[in-house]
């Protein structure tokens, strides 16, 4: 295998330059403004092509490959002579010309490069981890670390009892500072009191004020009698 650089130059049109260069592909003079130089030879842009797919090598890159008297683009060279690999996730064949993702020595199809726990597809800038030869996202990796830490360093039994203990259920009408709090009346009792007489229930706070008014009246009347 040999790789050669492809350079694009402006063809010489000066009288003392010995005339136009001859194309190595068609053996005709190169009268175009630009020409390609590869394998120490000069080419028309249309004549330097891949021997398999006929793509113009000057347009697909700056490198060509030669083997077995063939001039090839990179894709066809890898397809014909490249080494195939196997995806570390699905274990299927990866063709030599296919784009791949790598993690250390593992190779993956682009569609297989995802978290092998939750199938999260990674974006540019995402952090991933290779744990036990599996690709993991950051969340699943940290979760696995937590469980591994608990397995090797289990918490004390007393701590687990405190964590699993059920809090006592509060008892209704519990004594508060030595006194039992009053039980609020329900809506049913209030409705019964209102429906019996048609009047609102007597206000217990209004009674002392009524008595006070009575005493004031009595006092006023007694003062009138003495005069």
Structure commentary:
There is one protein chain. The longest helix has 21 residues, at about 205-225. This protein has six helices and twelve strands. It has helices at about 55-60, 75-80, 140-150, 155-165, 185-195, 205-225; strands at about 1-5, 5-10, 35-40, 40-45, 65, 70, 85, 95, 100-105, 105-110, 130, 135. The strands form five sheets. The chain has a three-stranded antiparallel β-sheet. Strands 2-3-4 form a three-stranded antiparallel β-sheet, with no helix packed on it. With about 230 residues, the protein is of the alpha+beta class.
For this entry, give a set of tags.
6 helices, rod-shaped, three-stranded antiparallel sheet, 19% strand
Question: What's this entry about, in short?
Answer:
It is built from six helices and twelve strands. The chain has helices at residues 57-60, 74-81, 138-152, 157-164, 187-197, 206-226; strands spanning 2-5, 7-10, 34-38, 41-43, 63-67, 70-72, 85-86, 93-94, 100-103, 106-109, 128-131, 134-137. The chain has a three-stranded antiparallel beta sheet with strand order 1-5-6. A three-stranded antiparallel beta sheet has the order 2-3-4, with no helix packed on it. Strands 7-8 form a two-stranded antiparallel ribbon.
